[in-house]
Amino acid sequence: MALLKVGDKAPSFEGINEKGETIKLKDYKGKKLILFFYPKDNTPGCTAEACSLRDHYTELRDAGYELLGVSPDSAKKHQNFINKFEFPFPLLADTELEVIKGFGAWGRKKFMGREYDGVLRSTFIIDGKGVIERVIDKVKTKAHAAQILEPVG
């Protein structure tokens, strides 16, 4: 399945965060949501991306955004990742890949000469009505917050 695109309705989802609490897309109704998909906690690129969002969290919130990260890691791994880097946003444990695949963020990847299926690092900006207003599929891990905040045009 291809990544969802601008104008698509975000698929309804439900999952468990790092605290074992249920999070649903409808929890963000009326709010702009940054939904970012990343492959794995505590890896260099994923850590750089999440730290960029952490370091600019106030700016993102001031711009009206809520944040939610999603990876196939367990809730326990997410809690350790959050504790280690002091992330102020929740991380969804999508161990069954339902949310990841629902957004089309799963597919063929190449790394060091080998091909495999995995999470396609991507970010969706979803408006308060649940419609995707922006897709970032070429994430700059160290400058991801700036990428989100830069005017589209």
Question: Could you characterize what this model shows?
Answer:
The protein is built from five helices and nine strands, in the order E-E-E-H-H-E-H-E-H-E-E-E-E-H. It is of the alpha+beta class and 153 residues long. The chain has a single domain (14-149), classed as 3-Layer(aba) Sandwich (Glutaredoxin). The strands form two sheets. Strands 2-1-5-4-3-8-9 form a seven-stranded mixed β-sheet. A two-stranded antiparallel sheet has the order 6-7. The longest helix has 12 residues, at 44-55. The radius of gyration is 14 Å and the shape is globular.
How large is the share of residues in beta strands?
A: 25-35%
Task: Report the CATH architecture.
Answer: 3-Layer(aba) Sandwich
* Number of structurally distinct domains: 1
Distance between the termini: 27 Å
Shape: globular
Q: Helix amount, in percent?
A: 25-40%
Q: Give a count of the beta strands, DSSP E runs of length 2 or more.
A: 9
Uncertain stretches = none
Helix and strand element order: EEEHHEHEHEEEEH
Radius of gyration, Cα only, in angstroms?
A: 14 Å
Q: Counting H and I runs of at least 4 residues, what is the number of helices?
A: 5
Major sheet summary line:
7 strands, mixed
What is the CATH topology? Answer: Glutaredoxin
Strands of the widest sheet, in order across it, are: 2-1-5-4-3-8-9
Structural class of the secondary structure composition? alpha+beta
Mind telling me the CATH class?
Answer: Alpha Beta
Mean pLDDT: 95
How would you name the CATH homologous superfamily?
Answer: Glutaredoxin
Oligomer: single chain
